[in-house]
Amino acid sequence: MPSTGVPGGPGWCDAADAWRPLQRQLTLATCAVAALAWLGLAAGSATLAGSLCSAGTGSPGAFSLREFAGALLGSLLMSSAMMLPAGIGPMLEVARGRHRVARRGRVLGAAVAFTGGYVTCWALIDLLLGRITAIVGAGWGAAADSGSFAAAAPGALLLLVGVHQASPWKARALERCARAPAARHCGGGRPHAAPIVAGLHAAIECVGCCGPIMALVELLGSAQLVWMGAAAAWLLVERQPRFGRGAARLAGAGLITCGGTLALGLLG
């Protein structure tokens, strides 16, 4: 939305002044949706556990359409609760790009489309992670019962995620996650892609920095709200430009310590 009137005179309306109220409204609306998702998870945690765990039980052919729908609904709730706050920044960037060239209704539509693409992509990613980790977890449980070497695998996973957290690759993934929407979808104030495509792309770009933590949440128990809340808060902290990298390294050190202790304890 361009500036109008004579600068400083009657009728002058700066685009930044017009954007700020809309920015607050979009931020509050997104936080409200995330809060509702958390309430939904808290109210139906038992149902959520059954839906998500069903994604990893039985053979692939036994995963019926009804089970898939239930698991997808649970993943949508989980992704909305955990990932929406972290996606506010890129959503606002895309919406502001539209705000410069479109009316308010289209700006709101762009924000909704971006958020829908972002959450749906994360829900599918979470569903895939849940499927994989449930199968792996079942194998680990059988290995632990038999007393085999694989019983130390959970500790090894914590070690791997910790090493990833502390690695330069994690730092590059955080930077790519933060810059991709601004650089590729609203450069120069004009959108280069449909908002829903921007949302899908933003989620995919963030898999490198958030995916391992999400997989860890799945293994620890996707229906455990405490783990989910802690992971969501930490992912949000890691997205902060000033101290995100340091927070990632700190988490990496803690996971390496816990994973090494667990693995050595089980092997000993």
What does this structure look like?
By secondary structure, the chain is mainly α. It has one domain (15-267). Helices cover 78% and strands 0% of the residues. The protein has eleven helices and no strands. The chain has helices at residues 15-43, 45-53, 65-83, 88-99, 104-146, 153-166, 168-185, 195-205, 207-221, 225-238, 244-267. The chain is globular.
Number of helices: 11
Summed over residues and divided by their number, the pLDDT gives a mean of 76
* Rg, Cα atoms, Å: 21 Å
Q: Name the helicity range.
A: over 70%
- Total domains, how many? 1
Tally the beta strands.
0
| Morphology | globular
Instruction: Report, as a whole number of angstroms, the end-to-end distance.
Output: 66 Å
The largest sheet is: none
Give the ordered list of helices and strands: HHHHHHHHHHH
Structural class: mainly alpha
* Percent of residues in β-strands: under 5%
Poorly predicted ranges (pLDDT <50, ≥5 residues)? 1-14, 53-61, 186-191
Task: Sum up the structure in keywords.
single chain, 268 residues, mainly alpha, disordered N terminus
Could you outline the blueprint of secondary structure elements for this entry?
Blueprint: H1 15-43, H2 45-53, H3 65-83, H4 88-99, H5 104-146, H6 153-166, H7 168-185, H8 195-205, H9 207-221, H10 225-238, H11 244-267
Helix pairs in contact: 1-3, 1-4, 2-3, 3-5, 3-10, 4-5, 4-7, 4-8, 5-8, 5-9, 6-9, 6-11, 7-8, 9-10
